[in-house]
Amino acid sequence: MSFFKKIFSSEKKETLNKGLEKSNTSFFGKLSKAVAGKSKVDDEVLDNLEEVLVSSDVGVNTTLKVIERIEARVAKDKYLGTDELNKILREEIAGLLSETNSGEETDFVIPSDKKPYVLMVVGVNGVGKTTTIGKLAYQFKKQGLKVVLGAADTFRAAAIDQLQVWADRVDVPMVRQDMGSDPASVAFDALQSGVNQNADVIIIDTAGRLHNKVNLMNELTKVKRVMQKVVGDAPHDVLLVLDGSTGQNAFEQAKQFTAATEVTSLAVTKLDGTAKGGVVIGISDQFQIPVKYIGVGEGIEDLQVFNKYEFVDSFFK
Ligand SMILES: Nc1nc2c(ncn2[C@@H]2O[C@H](COP(=O)(O)OP(=O)(O)O)[C@@H](O)[C@H]2O)c(=O)[nH]1
Ligand SMILES: [Mg+2]
Questions:
Q1: According to the model, what pLDDT value does residue 19 have?
Q2: pLDDT tens digits, residue range 217-267?
Q3: Which of 7, 32, 37, 87 has the fewest CB atoms found within 10 Å of its own CB?
Q4: Neighbours of ion ligand 2 (CB under 5 A)
Q5: pTM across the whole model
Q6: What is the CA(302)–ligand 1 centre distance, in A?
Q7: What is the Cα–Cα distance from 120 to 111, expressed in whole angstroms?
Q8: Which residues pair with 150 in a beta bridge?
Q9: How many Å apart are CA 122 and CA 130, to the nearest integer?
């Protein structure tokens, strides 16, 4: 059995398709309009296509890259029919995603040589960090891994309680302190507790206050440094969560966070309720950071391992 078949059960695929349905309709509605009545890819079609890509939140730089590549093909082939445009676009977009995403990610795996595997989750308030942590804890636990959560978003009491709700729901231990306590101290405790419990995965929630870039950088640096006192090479992954429905704002956040700390992977959430699936393409291309997960709903199962083949398939259906 192919590993795609194994991992992307039809049920799972349906969720992804459903989640991306709006994006598709919108992208393809617009794409069809862009080529309506045209048989040949000419300047006007390319102009329209540019508009479609930008308005689908692919981002200006990535859009220009795609347009340039198609222009090059038009120049080479002389006559390029609009009926081929779909296939070519698909190839170009898959190509862009290939540069950062190996495409081999198919399940919620963590490297077996890192124990405990420490995952630090960052991002601004409201993007879906806590929810994504809950969903990840569920997936890892389902595999029989021992998971510990650390509530290092100590800025609001509600944030700690919200993570607690997920911890209880998934039935995994959570390390917490009072609201207002030092996030680095919570992270330290969580790692120590995880090590003592022989945990496989430790996931650390953080506060995403962007009011001051220097503050953010200092705070994340401190959390990392303190964690390294317990697990020398922690964190093994710094996952930046971005709200896919915010379009250009998500690009801006990616810029700020990558400037403040070394981000090693991305999760793009809320792709269920938006027409902006294109944000995944642009961000992946512009930041050269792999998209690891996509959020397609508020439920516990509504997190998918990002797979570029599946994504392009859904986008172009
Ligand atoms: N529709 C949808 N809602 C989501 C998704 N992920 C998170 N949310 C919702 O977004 C809101 C903020 O999420 P939360 O995890 O509290 O964000 P945090 O502040 O970054 O921790 C909540 O109402 C979540 O249910 C998603 O993939 N799809
Ligand atoms: Mg939160």
A1: 53
A2: 888 999 999 999 999 999 999 999 999 988 889 999 999 999 989 999 999
A3: 37
A4: 129-130, 159
A5: 0.89
A6: 11
A7: 15
A8: 175, 204
A9: 10
